Structure to design on (214 residues):
């Protein structure tokens, strides 16, 4: 079970308030204090709201975006898990569009030594939110394989998106489609390979086939 960061209306408001300052001040207490001041709140509240510093701020923002994405999932019209997953990734990127520099700075902070566990936790929580919002009900081993596959796809897509200058992220969505198609093709190949022993056993001339005939 992936642990959740602390949630409160005050923390959500503070994160939203600081976002305009992140491109200039980074994920820092300075940006947070400026955001609180914009909201008319005492800037000295900053350390109490987010005692874990930059990584705590980034994790709280990612969790907030996950929740906002899930809240909008009901408006999707796509049918089928694969199409809904694709639509949810696109929706999340659309929500991040006004904050591209904040994402860039977050990825830079998460790539530093000592941030690996936080980065892994953030990615795991996001892909779990995507599958949950898509309607995935898996409870077997595929729960893990689906999330591992999507974690790799989402991470690569997010890095591609950072440098994408195409209109409406068209190049990023094409990149996403290629990655999703690759996973789907691999899944079909795996199922075909798994079925080969059963097909071979039914071929005329095999011992199994002779036994069936008898």
């Amino acid at each position: 079970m992936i642990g959740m960061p602390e949630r409160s209306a005050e923390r959500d408001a503070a994160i939203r308030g600081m976002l305009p300052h992140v491109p200039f001040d980074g994920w820092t207490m300075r940006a947070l204090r400026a955001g609180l001041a914009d909201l008319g709140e005492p800037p000295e509240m900053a350390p109490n709201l987010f005692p874990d510093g930059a990584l705590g701020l980034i994790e709280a923002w990612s969790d907030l975006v996950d929740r906002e994405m899930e809240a909008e999932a009901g408006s999707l019209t796509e049918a089928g898990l694969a199409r809904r997953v694709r639509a949810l990734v696109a929706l999340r990127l659309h929500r991040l569009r006004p904050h591209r520099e904040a994402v860039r700075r977050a990825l830079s902070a998460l790539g530093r030594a000592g941030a690996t566990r936080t980065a892994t936790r953030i990615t795991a929580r996001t892909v779990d939110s995507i599958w949950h919002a898509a309607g995935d009900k898996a409870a077997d081993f595929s729960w893990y394989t689906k999330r591992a596959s999507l974690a790799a796809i989402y991470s690569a897509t997010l890095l591609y998106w950072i440098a994408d200058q195409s209109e409406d992220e068209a190049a990023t969505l094409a990149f996403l489609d290629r990655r999703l198609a690759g996973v789907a093709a691999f899944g079909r190949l795996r199922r075909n390979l798994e079925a080969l022993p059963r097909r071979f056993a039914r071929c005329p001339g095999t011992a199994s086939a002779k036994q069936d005939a008898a």
